[in-house]
Amino acid sequence: MFDCDTKEDTLKAIKDFVDENPEDDYYIGNGWTVTAFENGPTRQMLDQICDHKPIVLMSEDGHGRWGNTKALELAGITADTESELQGEIVLDKDGEPTGYFKEWIGFLLDKAVPEAYSVEGMKESMEEEQKEFLSNGITSVFEPVMERPDTVRKAYEELDAEGRLKIRFQTGYFCNQRKSYKKQLEKFYDQSTSYNGTKYRNDFVKIMVDGVVEGQTAYLFDEYSNKPGYYGLANWTQEELNDICQIAKKMGFQIHMHAIGDAALDMALTALENAENTRPEHGWLGEFEEFRPAITHLQLVRPEDVKRMKKLGVTAAANPYWFFKEAGYYEEVEEKVLGERAKKEYPMKMFFDGGLNVTGASDYPVTLPVVPLAGMEIAVNRKFPVTAEETLLNLEEKVTLEQMLYAFTINGAYQMGVESTFGSLEPGKEADFIITDRDLRTVPDHQYSEVHVLETYIHGQCVYQMGNDSRGSLEHSELL
């Protein structure tokens, strides 16, 4: 569904899959976009495709769920359902669930398809993803959110113990339970300290401060342009967020926060400032020797908050893959709900100029495929590859190739706490590097995405090699 821009295309894709897989007991999927539905998707739309088996679908940005009536029944969801998970069960004019869920409360729908998420299934998916990552020159991965932490963590640990991880993976626990976040953090700590692997670490806590602009759940200082008096949603109170940061730091966790709106960024920084003097009781987890918080997305940022980020040592985990005006989406969503603010969204140069550690985040699987060279091209040009000039966004925030090379290498290693071992080619460090078919320094900046990774090396060993045709497709590649 990632390529479906309209309601009709989305429903056709779902129907085609259901028709082609009549023997399945349930249907799960990912990739629908809320902007394809004028008033949001409904369970009745899915009921017309299949009303006797559960259908559970995640939105392309991960901030929405959509289910049919059967899924709601199996999950026990009604108009009176209460949960400590933040978000909204959208109701129709009669007060009944529409089947559309905003933010975390949509996880309740997963109860309708519990057997869909097995450890073995996760392992198979992870190995396939690893192949794609290596083919794009990725040697280390930071995954801040484990939505099903018990299953995902066990899958990573088993793959690591079995020697099947070539890439180093670092993950974070998703703290999302408002009433019992203390118990949740205690569980995370016990799990994190119970495993000491070679290629897998779990030493971050992920906190979603707000939602997203397209769902109008991003938390803003100024009202939404299309909703007078409405400022979006904060997933926590300031007091709760302060408490979580203090507890996580005492346990030795690093903290990674999602902040889309400028008011959400202010809340995140206030919580970090409140916990500035907090120290871990038993040392930092993993390989960290100090506290290195990160804040990602940063769609709307006040200049004065960059100074606060610098003082706190916050990494700006920006998303260069999003630094352009997506046709239709920009006008119908971002410009519509943000007004003039949309012209200044997604800064990047501001962070470098402010002396921050800046990294290039993909938000995978929201961004597909994950190609760092394409991310570099977009950040340097502020437009999508091979597109017209009308996709240009906020040109004042253009950065250089050198800055993006740092963002995708040594700066990322610093965020992950391993810059003394990885992230640059120096004596005594691990030899992680790639060989490309062209020198990026001589390639026009609008052609970075056309450069191919010929070989990927980890620990000095070649773990990926493209086929004999150096300009061929990845279909001819080989994993070693």
Explained architecture:
The chain has 480 residues and is of the alpha/beta class. Strands 6-7-8-9-10-11-12 form a seven-stranded parallel sheet. It has a five-stranded mixed sheet with strand order 1-2-3-5-4. A hairpin with a 5-residue loop joins β4 and β5. The chain is globular, with a radius of gyration of 22 Å.
Notable characteristics:
5-stranded mixed sheet; alpha/beta; 480 residues; 14 helices; TIM Barrel; 7-stranded parallel sheet; Diaminopimelate Epimerase, Chain A, domain 1; 2 domains
CATH homologous superfamily caption of the largest domain: Metal-dependent hydrolases
Give the strand tally: 16
pLDDT < 50 stretches: 468-477
Number of helices: 14
Would you state the CATH class of the largest domain?
Alpha Beta
- Fold-level CATH name of the largest domain: TIM Barrel
Placed side by side, the strands forming the largest sheet appear as 6-7-8-9-10-11-12
How far apart lie the N and C ends?
A: 32 Å
Question: Helical content, roughly?
Answer: 25-40%
Question: How many structural domains can be distinguished in the coordinates?
Answer: 2
- CA-atom Rg in angstroms: 22 Å
Question: Quick one: overall form?
Answer: globular
Q: Which structural category do the helix and sheet elements fall into?
A: alpha/beta
The ordered H/E elements are HEHEEHEEHEHEHEHEHEHEHHEHHHEEEE
Q: Indicate the proportion of strand residues.
A: 15-25%
Q: Please tell me the CATH architecture of the largest domain by its name.
A: Alpha-Beta Barrel
Largest sheet: 7 strands, parallel
Nearest-integer average pLDDT = 92
